[in-house]
Amino acid sequence: MYFSYKNSEQAVLSDVNLKIDQGSRTVLLGANGAGKSTLFYHFNGVYEPSCGTVLYNGQPLRYRRKALMRLRSEVSVVLQNPDDQIFSATVEEDVAFGPRNMGFPDEEVAERVDAALFRTGMSDLRKRGTLKLSYGQRKRLTLAGALAMKPKVLVLDEPTAGLDPQMACEVMELADLMHRDGTAVIISTHDADLAYGWADAVNVLCAGKLTYSGDPDGFYSDRSAVRASCLVPPLICSINRCRSIISGRSISPYPHTVPEIVAKMSSSAITPGKMTIFPVDESASPDTEYIKKATMDICTGVCGTAARKAVSKGCPAGRIFSGTDGCLAETVGGKNSALLCDRRMLPAVTERLDRLKAMGCAVESEMADVRDISGYTED
Ligand SMILES: Nc1ncnc2c1ncn2[C@@H]1O[C@H](COP(=O)(O)OP(=O)(O)OP(=O)(O)O)[C@@H](O)[C@H]1O
Ligand SMILES: [Mg+2]
Predict the structure, then answer these.
(1) Per mean pLDDT, which range of 19-28, 166-175, 195-204 is the poorest?
(2) FRET pair for 144, CA 20 to 30 Å: which of 48, 84, 101, 306?
(3) Is residue 220 part of a domain?
(4) pLDDT digits (tens, 9 = 90+) for 323-375
């Protein structure tokens, strides 16, 4: 498809042919002005292509009011600039706006608002006036608004820009959680390290043209393509490349995260430790004393909103953000670790352990006995 802004002859998007798979974690990369935000505005029908078609579930978008309302109940686009998206006077009113507009009963609206505010760490600010929020808080508010819609497709335009490191990690965890719940998640970012650690599909825009579409390693292995797109490779990608030149060993498999590169570099030198995983869910009351005793003197980490809630009830929290990476790196380095983990994030942790195995480092892991956590019920 092609797109030009009104009063401009020049196409901002040209010949862009792109498919987003339902089950993928997709990242859109591109320099400033490449056309990322413009493309995202096409996903929920704010802009209509000058030439070509946007399809959703195989059907061309229709641009009548009702059809757009239906589309936007399934496709949530969180804009780059939160001020373009916040209209209500208070935080809770703003999050409630979408679900209320969809005609949900009051109880369901309240339930969705509570859950979305909790997940984005905004519960304490629910009564605050939106004009009194900081930039990062406004970004979180727009994300909460999107979560409250329970969308099938979640599009996040530079979601971590301007957020503190903890919140940036939590946003990526949320994106992972949404993806595992079956939501297609598409993110634009200038953070190459973040993109590499998270995405399994990468699309690159360069001056309005799609120059790459495929897996992250395919793009970042082609250094001239990365340069031509005015981008930089992720740090881990560069370290892996240098290591393979120095050691004469194969450049693949490609590590994507710190624990993975540590695993690859030290695979035969160190016997890895064991990671104990304590699964918790949001409705549980974890036995904090048991967990404290079981994790004494070892590195502890936190993963997911339920685990953060457990910390607020007194569970130990060494690494409150980037907990999975922290614990895995420690374990790869030969020490034991304990991860307090949101039960919904367990498949993500298993995936991370499998990737370490692929790097030549089989980290031992065990699930803590769930019966030791009072209030936790097995399915
Ligand atoms: N409303 C508009 N009217 C005219 N031109 C616009 C408008 N919005 C964006 N543009 C132009 O379209 C091009 C693409 O802009 P866009 O905001 O999509 O880029 P981007 O890739 O999101 O950049 P960034 O990384 O800075 O967010 C730029 O040249 C920009 O100046
Ligand atoms: Mg943009």
Answers:
(1) 166-175
(2) 48
(3) yes
(4) 899 999 999 999 999 999 999 899 999 999 999 999 999 899 999 875 555 54
Question: For residues 14 and 209, what is the distance between their CA atoms, to the nearest angstrom?
Answer: 5
Instruction: Tell me which of 266 and 130 has the higher pLDDT.
Output: 130
- 367 and 282 housed in the same domain: yes
Is the peptide bond prior to 151 cis by the omega test (within 30 degrees of 0)? no
pLDDT in tens, 36-95: 999 999 999 999 999 999 999 999 999 999 999 999 999 999 999 999 999 999 999 999
**Do 190 and 83 share a structural domain?**
yes
Nearest ligand 1 atom, CA 35: 18
Pocket test for ligand 1, best of 36, 81, 139 (most atoms within 8 A of CB): 36
* Domain co-membership, 216 together with 293: no
Give the distance (Å) from ligand 2 centre to CA of residue 160.
13
The CATH number covering residue 303 comes to 3.40.1010
Q: Does residue 68 sit in the same domain as residue 214?
A: yes
| CATH code of the domain covering residue 72 | 3.40.50.300
103 and 219 fall within a common domain? yes
d(CA 157, ligand 2 centre) in Å = 7
Q: What pTM value is reported for the model?
A: 0.92
**200 and 332 belong to one structural domain:** no
Instruction: Count the domains in the chain.
Output: 2
Structural domain containing residue 124:
25-228
Q: What confidence tens digit (pLDDT) does each residue in 211-223 have?
A: 999 999 999 999 9
E strands, the chain, in order: 25-29, 55-56, 59-60, 75-78, 153-157, 184-188, 201-206, 209-214, 274-280, 299-303, 337-342, 364-367
Dihedral of the alpha carbons of 308, 311, 313, 316, in degrees to the nearest 10: 160
Return the ligand number nearest the Cα of 190: 1
Look up residue 291 and give its amino acid. Answer: I
